[in-house]
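Reference record
================
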Amino acid sequence: MMFYVGQKVVCVDDGHYHASYPFEKPVKGRVYTVSRVYEADDDGEVMLCLDELDQPGNHEWYQGDHSYAYRPVVERKTSIEIFKAMLTPKTEQVSA
């Protein structure tokens, strides 16, 4: 799965944090914004840094999160134009 900077993602797995994790943890169902995407040095796993968790002063500890815990948010633009067209009377006349 491809991730990119500026992309909105939703957390789908927040169960991999230890109780002793001292900082704000991602919350399942919450939407975040990707600020950085990189491969971990040790195993090549794709990691995501998130704007909402990378607060000032946290740069020393915040190394991102596993990408498997996130899915892209699918934004669908809702349009009611087709329904408006169905309700608009036709002006054409039928000849006999």
Remarks:
- The chain has a mean pLDDT of 82.
